[in-house]
């Protein structure tokens, strides 16, 4: 597996729910922002069902999760966050969802896009990859190629003044198998601090902290560093 050393100047993270971006690529994005990159977040649902508590309304939960996601993005160093008004658990692959991703790619013009690996249904650790993750990943993979770059796709966006945009690199987290790794030893604690912002998601944050750190450490050990994240990379560079 190759180490990803060069970093993109403009990064877009496309995630299904508040907290997925931090779990998926928080260490890498924080590292590259420290090195001078600009990062943007597109969250495809408002996370309004992501609670086991019966006594909070979906509207109130969406407000809480919006605040938490913006705080977490600030810890990572992301410059802007857009949260789509789509409901948790209701994402399906559609021309419309894909168009939302194309729109924000054309607005922010990233060099690299991070998202969920849509091809994984059962993760290597034996968990189910949530349906919203798969829908988000699939829409983003297709937005990456060919829809964002084609001037004839989503022509209403072009009519508004947005331009076609070619993203150079796509990074999939939760990938099976990954093919690049990033040393995040200097930003592992920043990732954990960002995860801590999602207080409504973790009754016992200590368990989440240990889980996240153990995962980073196990991957790091494979590559001779303290902590690492891995991805599958697709590149449009020759
Ligand atoms: Zn999620």
Give a short summary of the structure.
This protein is an alpha/beta fold and 238 residues long. 41% of the residues lie in helices and 17% in strands.
If you had to describe this structure to a student in words, what would you say it looks like?
The chain has an eight-stranded mixed β-sheet, with helices on both faces. The two termini are 19 Å apart. It has one domain: Rossmann fold (3-Layer(aba) Sandwich). It is of the alpha/beta class and 238 residues long. The longest helix is centred in the N-terminal third of the chain and has 19 residues, at 58-76. Helices cover 41% and strands 17% of the residues. Residues 16-17, 20, 130, 133 line the site of zinc ion (ZN).
Listed once per kind, the bound small molecules are: zinc ion
CATH architecture: 3-Layer(aba) Sandwich
Query: What is the string of helix and strand elements?
Result: EEHEHEHEHHEEHHE
CATH-derived topology: Rossmann fold
Topology:
Layout (H helix, E strand, L loop, with lengths): L1 E2 L6 E6 L4 H15 L3 E6 L14 H19 L3 E4 L11 H14 L3 E5 L14 H17 L7 H5 L9 E5 L6 E4 L4 H9 L8 H18 L5 E8 L3
Parallel strand pairs: 1-7, 2-3, 2-5, 3-4, 5-6
Antiparallel strand pairs: 6-8, 7-8
Helix pairs in contact: 1-2, 1-6, 2-6, 3-4, 6-7
The chain binds zinc ion.
